[in-house]
Amino acid sequence: MTDQTSTHFYVPIGEDEREICLGPEGSVAHVSRVVRMIQGRWKLPILFRLYADPSLRTLQLKRDLPGISQKMLTAHLRELAEDGLIERIDFGEKPLRVEYQLSDAGRNFLPVLIAMRRFSLKHPA
């Protein structure tokens, strides 16, 4: 009987099957892209704050995330918007009025984060 570890179920070991997992469009590339989307000290706190409220202005996010600089908040909001996890709503008013809210992709990402939390609870460091 052959020892079949879980690796064999997820990482194809045949030469012609490796592209599925390790190729430029394979599983590793897709998971790495998602990890990059949430990388950064403040991205997850921003997302979780937006899960709690349907839309927030920049000033409210800054108040709710003690320690974040305006520069870092702006950079992370821009990156999250570019990655499609949040939407920037510009009301076109003077003075400038902008709000941020989760996009459909951002709302669909919540179960992934919940699964990551469950994994962390079951596998303490």
TrEMBL record:
Residues 21-125 form the HTH hxlR-type domain. The keyword DNA-binding applies. Keywords: DNA-binding, Transcription, Transcription regulation. The keyword Chaperone does not apply. It holds the Pfam family HxlR. GO terms for molecular function: DNA binding. PANTHER family: TRANSCRIPTIONAL REGULATOR, TRANSCRIPTIONAL REGULATOR, MARR FAMILY. This is Transcriptional regulator, HxlR family.
